[in-house]
């Protein structure tokens, strides 16, 4: 049998490239794109036996998996689809993959709107929120509150170096929220003017730590110091099962060119440039984690993780 790796489709490779380059970004959006890519791999495959098709799907999953290491929604999506790729013929497996991808995407969408309704309960008419990066889970909370007739304002951190705050500003503006944009270092100055800090998550660890865009932990410490509640909006697909057994979450280091161009770097003596994409906020700085299952104090999230994943998980893309 030839190498299943060689039969990974161009479309799957393009999706993986787009995730790596951050054209597809944000934990929930990455999960959705990865699930769709597996469905497309199954549809395009010429495999004639279930084993050959499953080997091809595992190879495609590995290509998708090896793009960005921090958002656990990516492996959680791949696991969901691969563990449901059952069937005694290749056709059966293809159909099972299509069904599980559709189910997964429905769950993602429903989870986000359920979570949005929970998060919206925390927001009152006239409140101001501060945001960091761009999180579709956070925006679902704001959108649900706006739909309930609440008028909201937002102070949006631009989020260097990739400026995802600009996407947040545009989407909040489209919802009718009054938006003020600030540079990241101005956050502390304005924390007394906001009622809530709202952030998303790429992963949540078993101890309740929130792994999110770099700068979240500093923002949370400052918010605690100022007495401003900090809420993390995160669907349960952000729960990191490996942390139940003591593993830590990898923090992605990105290219220095996102921070400074070669010419400017040369001009200032070519310093070492570090560009971590995410950081870890300890649970003591987070007031609540809002999920589609309700709101949890961070320290109790482990109970939900055990309920959803048991004690151990498998990595079905490994040969
Ligand atoms: O940190 C980021 C995005 O980082 P990047 O831009 O590097 O992917 C977002 O806060 C989370 O992914 C949650 O997003 P969502 O709520 O949409 O899943």
UniProtKB/TrEMBL annotation:
Active site: 133, 202
A Pfam short name: IF-2B
UniProt keyword Nucleotide-binding, yes or no: no
A single BP term in Gene Ontology: pentose catabolic process
Binding site for substrate: 25-28, 68, 212-213, 238
Keyword Oxidoreductase part of the UniProt annotation: no
GO MF terms, alphabetically ordered: ribose 1,5-bisphosphate isomerase activity; S-methyl-5-thioribose-1-phosphate isomerase activity
EC identifiers of the protein: 5.3.1.29
Family: Belongs to the eIF-2B alpha/beta/delta subunits family. R15P isomerase subfamily.
Miscellaneous notes: Reaction proceeds via a cis-phosphoenolate intermediate.
NCBIfam families, alphabetized: eIF-2B_rel (TIGR00524), ribulose_e2b2 (TIGR00511)
Name listed for the protein in its UniProt record: Ribose 1,5-bisphosphate isomerase
């Amino acid at each position: 049998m030839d190498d299943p790796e060689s039969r990974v489709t161009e479309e799957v490779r393009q999706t993986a490239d787009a995730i790596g380059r951050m054209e597809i970004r944000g934990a929930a959006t990455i999960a959705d794109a990865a699930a769709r890519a597996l469905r497309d791999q199954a549809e395009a495959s010429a495999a004639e036996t279930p084993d050959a098709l499953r080997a091809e799907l595992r190879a495609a999953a590995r290509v998708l998996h090896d793009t960005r290491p921090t958002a656990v929604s990516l492996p959680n999506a791949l696991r969901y689809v691969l563990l449901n790729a059952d069937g005694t013929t290749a056709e059966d497996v293809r159909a099972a993959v299509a069904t599980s991808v559709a189910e997964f995407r429905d769950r993602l969408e429903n989870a986000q709107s359920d979570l949005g309704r929970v998060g919206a309960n925390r927001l009152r008419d006239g409140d101001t929120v501060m945001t960091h990066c761009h999180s579709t889970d956070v925006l679902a909370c704001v959108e649900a509150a706006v739909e309930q007739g609440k008028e909201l304002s937002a102070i949006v951190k631009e989020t260097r170096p990739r400026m995802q705050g600009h996407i947040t500003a545009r989407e909040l503006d489209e919802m009718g929220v009054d938006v003020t944009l600030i540079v990241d270092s101005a956050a502390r100055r304005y924390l007394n003017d906001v009622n809530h800090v709202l952030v998303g998550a790429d992963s949540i660890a078993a101890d309740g730590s929130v792994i999110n865009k770099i700068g979240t932990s500093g923002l949370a410490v400052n918010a605690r110091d100022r007495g401003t509640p900090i809420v993390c909006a995160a669907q349960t697909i952000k729960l990191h099962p490996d942390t139940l057994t003591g593993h830590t979450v990898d923090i992605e280091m990105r290219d220095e060119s996102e921070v400074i161009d070669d010419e400017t770097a040369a001009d200032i003596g070519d310093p070492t440039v570090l560009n971590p994409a995410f950081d870890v906020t300890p649970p003591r700085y987070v007031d609540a984690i809002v999920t589609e299952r309700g709101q949890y104090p961070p320290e109790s999230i482990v109970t939900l993780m055990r309920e959803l994943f048991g004690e151990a998980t498998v990595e079905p893309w490994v040969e």
